[in-house]
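Practice set, problem 2.
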Amino acid sequence: PRDAPAELARATPGLRWVAAGGGADWVDDLWPLLSAAEVVVTHAGQNAIADVALAQACAVVIPEQRPFGEQHATAAALAEAGIAVSVPRWPSADRWAALVQRARHQDPRQWKRLQVEGAAARAAAAIAA
């Protein structure tokens, strides 16, 4: 939602939220924000998940509706593997504090299981072969 940062700030006093993308101001380089974030809230698209995985950020993943349900499948797999917290839709304000706490207790090193580091080089080698 467009008012997500304000909603999250009200629901989690003491935390500072930064929005990037969607209806928020455009951020040319998201990496400094991702790598410094205590918790990232993201959709479950493959590129977003790869970025969060490389940053090894604790995350709340909220899948967007897609024709084949791939984001819901990705979010469910991440939650089942204990890599990220997942909810099927944007939560009500009263749920955010608990979701952030759950995300903070995830082990961000679990993202390494997705093997995103060096993925571009591996893809290039496979294409060149």
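Problem 2, part (b): a different protein.
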Amino acid sequence: MKSRRNNRGLMSLNPVAASILLSLPLMTQAANINIKNGTLTSANGVPVININNPNGNGISHNIYDDFNVDKNGVIFNNTSSGANTVLGGAIAGNGNLTSGSAKVILNEVTSNKKSTLNGMMEVAGDRAHLIIANPNGITTQGSGFINTEKATITTGKPDMQDGQLKGYVVNGGIITVNGLQSDSPTEILARSVAVAGTVVADELAVIAGNNYIDTDAKVVGAVTATGLRNTYGVDVSELGGMYANRINLISTESGVGVRNTGVIAGGINDININSNGKFINSNGEIKSVGNTHINTNGTLENVTGSIVGNGKIFIDTTKNTISNTSGGNISAASDIIVSSGALNNTNGKIASGTLLAVNTNGMTLTNSGKGKTTGLEAGVVALKTGVLDNRNGQIHGNYIGIESSEINTASGAMEAVSDISLLSTGNIDNTQGLIRTQSGGINIETANSFINRNNITADETSADSLGVLAGVGGIKVKAATVNNRTGKLGSSGTISIESTGTIDNHQGNISANKNISLSTLGAIDNSTGKIWSDEMISIKGASLNNSLYVGHILGDQGVKIDLTGVLNNHIGVVRSEYGDVQISAKGVNNKGGMIVGEDINIKSSSYVDNHYGLMVANKKLTIDAVTDINNSYGEEFSNLYGDYFGMTGQIGGMIGREGVDITANTLDNTHSRVIAEYGPLNLKMSGFIDNHYALLNSGGDTNIKTNLLNNNYATIYSLGDLNIDVGSLSNYSSGSIEKNNATGVIASEKIFR
């Protein structure tokens, strides 16, 4: 039976019962320690437990009916010779330790009573692994550990086999932490853990769930749970916090997640969070000097939350959703690696000092918001997604590489110092958006459409610029169709556009300091658009519409157009300041248009229409058409269309300063002119030449061969020899054939005057 005497709450031990009860006569929670197989004394009002003699494995196993610690704390006496303690000062030696001090001090509660730890727990003498095990539940308030090799509080039942502690069987119980501190590695093992105060430790392991956990704090198996499960395996409240050099936080119970609305702060030895359910960090803060690993089997919610670190951040949600919205922040000085399902970064930020790699496993990545605290940012941004929705969003990096089923960056921005690479099996839409590199190139490749509409701005370097703007690395676009209507493609390097469908540059602008190449199996529409290059322009397609009020194709070093269909240059411009213009097409419509270059070479498998138009070659003009050439009414060029080009008073027609060579079925030069200013003029028509009210002029020799020549009210003038070979010549009224030192021949069956 128990005997009691009241001496500041100290109760004597009945040797028969082998139990002691210590209590303080206060209204607050008092120490209540009822040990079955040990002895209890005190030092300056602090309970001292003379632990049992350790077994051959160094384990001192102490069993309790009650184990509660008040604010004065408790001392576990692990010295046979006495020691100075922090809590109680000098204490006498523990006479139970006949075999030496313990390496492990196991304290197990076997009743159905919970434990409350309101004070510090100190190991006197040699440091040891201190374990408090109570399956009924444990609550701490301002508690902690002193002089421990390691500290463990658990609701698990210790698994002792052959005198060895193998691990803990955790099938229930809650540990509520309202404050805990330790200068040694610390373990909190329970079915569920609630942190409402500050936890400070050297290293901290928190494991929740119905588990078998070994003595290295590793989950090696599951056990049958008892009772109802909590919503969260680990729940850190707004006033809660974990601070340790290393933090391992694990919740293993299926569907039971982790919630942090407080602070989880790790040192140089990493933070590891593993949840078999969702992980909620909304309004919470996770920060680490080292790396951070977060693995979930459910969603990750970081709404207004913060996950930051000086090291790397690894996040794997097993293809579940991540919400990093409303000011959510995931930032690291080093790499950020994310594997998830759908990722929502609306008004959130994910930023890395080195690499940001995100794989949404075929699901959507939503990135919107253009404030300073929003967007995706890294030295290297590598995204592999289903749909990338960057509408009104921003992505910044030294390099940006994106592979998606669809990319929508309408009203959004992607900016890189070096290269940007966009690959998609669906559409890539940059309507009113910005894709820009400072020095590198931009590569855009899609199996469907590339859309770059409504984004022409005057200043290509400002924060408000729109379009696709590249540095010297150039622009490469490969798509089924390209829609650049009222859009801008600009490059300090080259531009290459390859399409299997159509290229639409209506009212658009494609400009480069280097070569421009457009290649498509379909039609190209540059009506009222501009294609400008400081070097060469090469265009290949089914047809080209360069019409409607000054469509411009200007290649300073040359223009080459190769079409299987028609070139429509109606009121358009094809021009090269210092290079040649080469055109090959099924038909050429230059009605009211202008073609200017050094050498101009036009080859048509049908007609060439220069009605009201102007062609000027600074060197030689060569035209080869299978059917008809219409060069009529060039004299009306200025009146009808010259103002569009700023050429008031300019007469149209065909001019080759070093010579003109034209071959066709017919040539209609009515009210117009063909001039070889300093070189020969060669006209070869299998049908007729109609030159009435017109001028054929050569500064060199002239050779005309046709079946019928109509020169009524017109002039054919040659500074050199004039050779005319016709079947029939009509030279009515004031028509004349003039020659200068000519020895030419006129051969005709009939000549009418």
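Answer key, part (b): The chain is about 0% helix and 55% strand. Residues 637-640 form the longest helix (4 residues).
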